[in-house]
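Open question from group meeting: does this chain pack into something compact, or does most of it stay loose? Before anyone orders reagents, we agreed to write out a predicted structure and look at it together. Recording both the input and the output here so the notebook holds the full record.
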Amino acid sequence: MPDFYKIARKVLFSLKPETAHHLTLSGANFAHRLGLLTLLTGKPPASQPVEVMGLTFPNRIGLAAGMDKSGRAVAAFGALGFGHVEIGTITPRAQPGNPQPRLFRLREHQAIINRMGFNNPGMTAVLANLEKSRQGYSGIVGINLGKNFDTPNENAIDDYLSGFRQAYAAADYIAINLSSPNTKGLRDLQAADTTRGLITALQEQRKKLAASHQGKIVPIAIKIAPDLSDQHIADLAQVFNQTHIDAVIATNTTIDRQAVAGHAHADEAGGLSGRPVTDRSTEVIRQLRQNLTADIPIIGVGGIFSAEDAQNKLDAGATLVQIYTGLIYQGPSLIHDILKLN
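Structure tokens returned:
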């Protein structure tokens, strides 16, 4: 498996990042359909299921949102060993995202900067993709929601409610992305009062939807940024406690460039992911755990490149972990290494 991905990564890293991304998704799907994916990457180790948000996750490791924006490769990622796959971010209406180039590798730092801007085909198309791509996958599927770029913040709740209604029947859980730096003004929605209003509206909508979906209750998770102050984290934790949110995802990408200062791409706009956010995301998890009630789980994401990194997130207070940039640099062996923690 290491030899296979070592060769594949050389090829992929010789291409433009966005081209490599699309080729990876297409290749994974193709190999999975032919029954070759597990042969190439190895059979995932056995793992123990875990109960989170009232759902049974086959294991603790998931694919973070951003890799499969259109919901086209869920079963393929499941075959790699992921116990849950979070697709998106998805907006109610299709949108092209920001102009290219918008994805940059910082190899020396094992990092990526992206300013994709929620490029996706819209909820209707994604749900059609998901219906096909999740066939044969027995894990958990999360749907990550955002607002359209041209929806003003004062109307953002309308976009989230629209996406929530559309995704409800297909989702095992729904993640609310308030923390991407690539949609103007989006992070302002993380203000405590604004977040409270959004959660309350979603929970009220859920009551109505449950009544028309045979009582199905879809858990809601909020994804937050790593760049929040200690006080802001504490304030949000109080909101999460008072609203009894189902989970918190910590963290998204960072706008801090201190760790990559001097790199040729350091001044590119967008969110920085990978090694530079490892420690900060773990610290945010630790602070959240200290402020959240014990019944609110944390999904830890940010700079996981080894089983030790994943264990550090769990030790800090996470119940589940997600990877993305680490998968790009390390390959499927990273999934297997983390699964052995069970």
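Observations to bring back to the group:
The radius of gyration is 18 Å.
The longest strand covers residues 84-90.
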